[in-house]
Amino acid sequence: MSVLIKNGRVVTAVDDYHADIFISGETIDLIGANLSIAADHTIDARGKLVIPGGIDPHTHLELPFGGTITSDTFETGTRAAAFGGTTCIIDFAVQTKGTSVLDALETWHAKALGQTAIDYSFHMIITDMPEDRTKEMRMLCDEGITSYKLFMAYPGAMLSDDGTIFRAMRKAGEDGTLICMHAENGLVIDELIKTALSEGHIEPKYHALTRPTRMEAEGTHRALAIAEVARAPVYIVHLSSYDSLQELRLAQARGVMAHGETCPQYLLLDVSKYDEPGFDGAKYVLTPPLREKWNQEELWRGLRGHALHAISTDHCPFCLKEQKEIGKDDFSKIPNGGPGIENRMSLIYHYGVSGGYIGLNRFVELTSTGPAKIFGMFPKKGTIAIGSDADIVIFDQEREEIISYYNGHTHHMNIDYNAYEGMPVKGFTETVISRGRVIIDKGEYLGRKGDGQFIKRGPYGGMYTPSKSGEIPERAPASRPSV
Ligand SMILES: [Zn+2]
Hints:
It is built from twelve helices and 19 strands. Strands 1, 2, 3, 4, 5, 16, 17, 18 and 19 form a nine-stranded mixed beta sheet that branches. The chain has an eight-stranded parallel beta sheet with strand order 6-9-10-11-12-13-14-15. Helices cover 28% and strands 23% of the residues. The protein is of the alpha/beta class. The chain starts with a strand and ends in a 38-residue tail after the last strand. The chain has helices at 74-83, 101-112, 135-142, 162-175, 186-198, 205-209, 213-230, 242-254, 264-268, 294-304, 344-354, 360-374, and strands at 2-11, 16-24, 27-32, 41-44, 49-52, 54-59, 64-65, 68-69, 86-94, 119-125, 147-151, 178-182, 234-236, 258-262, 310-311, 392-403, 423-434, 437-441, 444-445. It binds zinc ion (ZN).
């Protein structure tokens, strides 16, 4: 199978030129002007952008949480991602307390195998890590899992104490892997929740009022300080506020290998959403919560100024009916999370690039190249280059849509609402090629479940080499991938 893309404007994190691209099998074979080669399939991309497929490094498909399970499966979630121009996700496998991370990995492999439309990998959520099991982290690396997530929130369920965080970070620093942190002071937040409930406040907006930005900033500060002492890189997930961003900048200025991601919901939605009538505010009960609007401008500045290195969705969908409703009489029982896997590329293009906050190259960097580099998939993923996987999106800058649950072009996610309901976008995914196969063409899905493959990821910053018979190589000096 071969594909020839003619006449497109090829944009990567650093390039911007007109060229033809010849794909043979799963990878890019040739890039040049006026290529005349016979191909099984020729696509005319005149007037369109040709960009690397999006990489969403933060999704939760089929995740058990709060007594229910996220409504998108690996099949429905990855198909929706494909419609939106994302060709690779990194989802989260979860190790529960007292169990092996290797068992958790097996469980998540079983969920995803043969189900996905696009390629995927996993981070491993670690909930406890006794000293005698830290060696499992190394074994995970050999399986291509080179990043872990720890929580400072959700005491009693996910929260790791600072000692566990330090041990995991020190081990990650030795191995050349990366710890992702959910940075919030969960213990203080728990007290605020108890107080709010004791005063009879049960509405969804109290989810936001009990999670102040200062408690996110405190968690961020603590995560960065522990990483600094552990001499390990760290990645702050779903950074939502200016207070937190300032902590990240300070640590980066000290030389801490600190990365941050933010998400469309923090850039485009604000705390006023919790005032939607009835129980509709529950649609936005996600963690961290939506913030006061002025934070948005600051987050765009953080993206433009390279303090933040990626835009993920934290796609964690729960239907309003029956799922969010679990918390109808108690905001603290509303399953935390919201949808977005499908709408990221158009939202960031329209409100970020056309909105004047970031350039086209930076758009590609934040939605694809940055995540690929940080999470050990570059240059297989995250760029358009000879030998790279042919994960390519043909993007129509002129196409206008209104994002809506009711718009068949913008909502294929398995959830009964869209968080960006009614928001206009100009700039839309037209064709999606995933490892050489055209899986979306002019709004039609041509792929099959099982097209996607598990991607074994490499080390952070090129530091890790697979262990042979348990030997641990010398620790290389840590360096941050340039994003
Ligand atoms: Zn998440």
